[in-house]
Design brief:
42% of the residues lie in helices and 15% in strands. The chain is of the alpha/beta class. It has one domain: Rossmann fold (3-Layer(aba) Sandwich). Helix 2 links the parallel strand 1 and strand 2. Bound molecules: nicotinamide-adenine-dinucleotide.
């Protein structure tokens, strides 16, 4: 039997006939995840609460108009998720829970509102979308995928982020539990823990501060949104069918 040499072509992911939902998919990391799925032949429903970000995404993704669906959704609101789920044009194969916010303050200064806003979006939001969408998955598929975006902060904590670290650690607990409960139903459920990722927000930071952040990373650079999208596509692929309940750090080694 001859062995086929790998080519660049057959190493790429193929999501033809697959459909994904990406929450917070209109900008930042979520937008890159969306774009990577679309470029790999998949269809994506972007769930985002920002009308402006959705409008920009619509313009930027105009060449993929047959593959992309936009829904203005607030993941903290059960009714908003239910309405968006009812409007979906396709059954779901992949759910990427990416929407997230920060309200950073030291514990002494953190208000109840700061706590509630972050827990509601970054943890309860995942419960809402996953609970409501679990019924919308392609019933016949044996490769249903849920990928949750946590953070290295959920693994080791961070000054000024009591709310965010608690929510992101909660995401890890939820991921492992769902991996146990839903495995028999044809799902894999995994989390990604990004480190310092370069986004529109970090681009506005002074170069000195960015250099200091990069210096803490063993590979001596910030991560890119593509680094996270590559990991999401891998965990969503057929090739990752035996990976379940794991937390994949995509952080250049910063948690070591
Ligand atoms: N950027 C980083 O360095 C980094 C590091 C670790 C983890 N993360 C995580 O990655 C994810 C994406 O981060 P990002 O940097 O791209 O952020 P971002 O602010 O650029 O994008 C977040 C998106 O989520 C949307 N969103 C926020 N609240 C929502 C809600 N209630 N309902 C629906 N949509 C909502 C926003 O409109 C936005 O489009 C987040 O979960 C974040 O915690 C980011």
């Amino acid at each position: 039997m001859s062995v086929t040499q790998p080519t660049t072509e057959n190493l790429k992911f193929n999501f033809k006939n697959k459909t994904a939902i990406v929450t917070g998919g209109a900008q930042g990391i979520g937008f890159q995840i969306t774009l990577s799925f679309l470029q790999s032949g998949g269809s994506v429903s972007i769930w985002d609460y920002s009308a402006d970000a959705l409008e920009n995404a619509k313009k930027e993704l105009s060449s993929f108009s047959n593959q992309v669906h936009f829904a203005q959704v607030d993941v903290t609101q059960k009714e908003s998720c239910e309405a968006a789920a009812a409007s979906l044009p396709w059954p779901v194969d992949i759910l990427v829970n990416n929407a997230g916010i920060t309200r950073d303050k030291s514990f002494g200064k953190m208000s109840f509102e700061d706590w509630n806003a972050v827990i509601n979006t970054n943890l309860t939001g995942l419960f809402n979308t996953t609970k409501i969408l679990s019924e919308k998955f392609n019933a016949t598929s044996k490769s249903k995928r849920i990928v949750n975006i946590s953070s290295v902060v959920g693994l080791y904590g961070n000054f000024g982020q009591t709310n965010y670290a608690a929510a992101k650690a909660g995401v890890i607990g939820m991921t492992k539990t769902l991996a146990k409960e839903l495995g028999r139903k044809g799902f894999t459920v995994n989390a990604i823990a990004p480190g310092f990722i370069s986004t529109a927000m970090t681009e506005k930071m002074p170069k000195e501060a960015l250099d200091q952040m990069a210096a803490k990373v063993p590979v001596a650079r910030l991560g890119s949104t593509e680094d996270i999208a590559n990991a999401v596509l891998f965990l969503s692929s057929e090739q990752a069918s035996y990976i379940n309940g794991t937390v994949l750090s995509v952080d250049g080694g910063v948690v070591i």
